[in-house]
Amino acid sequence: MGPADRPDLLGKVFISQFDPRPARAFVMAGIALFALAGLGTLAFVKVVPLVPLICIAILVFHFAPALWPSRPAIELRNDGFRLDGLGLIPWEAIGAIAYVERALGKSGRRPLALLEVNLVADFALAIVRPDPGPIWRKLQVRHWRKMGDTHLTILLSGLSDGPRDIRNAFEVFLGYPINGPRGLIA
Fold first, then answer.
1. Is residue 14 part of a domain?
2. Which of the four pLDDT bands, split at 50, 70 and 90, describes residue 20?
3. How far is residue 172's CA from residue 182's CA, in Å, rounded to a whole number?
4. Whose CA, among 68, 116, 158, 159, lies 20 to 30 Å from 20?
């Protein structure tokens, strides 16, 4: 019995978008750095600083989906989950799923939360409604990565909802708990 067979989930949707705050901070730092390089080029070399301007444009273009989210990054429905730039994957296509938290930096105060999804078939068969978007979308930021033919890694950090909220939503739609740390205090 999959989520499509559960009447309590009919019409329920969970949507999470990119959180623009981390992307905005990263882009603003990059713009400041390239602007300083451009001013240095203009002051010392006395030419128009094309390279720093091009770098600023590339930086903004790459992070545009996170800066101005117009589509949900993750959308959970009773027929499956959709990832922006990949498409709809039915719940029945999931073989195994695990929640992973990794510490970033020496202090480990900012954990990186991931969902590791193993599919029962390769991507060509598992994705029922592909959503590649325009050709330039492949050059822009994504929160997922294909690993091999059947493995998918979804980055949960950096989305508008917390990683554990997204994990709980996946568990509700799947109907069973996901392996990984719970963060419970004993």
1. no
2. confident
3. 15
4. 116
Question: Which residues, other chains included, contact 126 with Cβ-Cβ below 8 Å and sequence gap of 6+?
Answer: 89, 90, 93, 119, 120, 150
Distance CA 73, CA 143 (A): 8
- Are residue 54 and residue 99 in the same domain, yes or no? no
Residue 102 resides in a domain: yes
Mean pLDDT of the 16-39 span:
88
Residue range(s) defining the domain that contains residue 105? 76-174
* Sequence-ordered list of residues with C-beta below 8 angstroms from that of 25, at least 6 positions apart, any chain: none
Say if residues 91 and 171 touch (Cβ distance below 8 Å): no
Helix (H, G, I), strand (E, B) or coil at 26: helix
User: CA neighbours within 13 Å on the CB side: how many for 20?
Assistant: 10
Give the per-residue pLDDT at 145: 92
Q: What is the pTM of this model?
A: 0.79
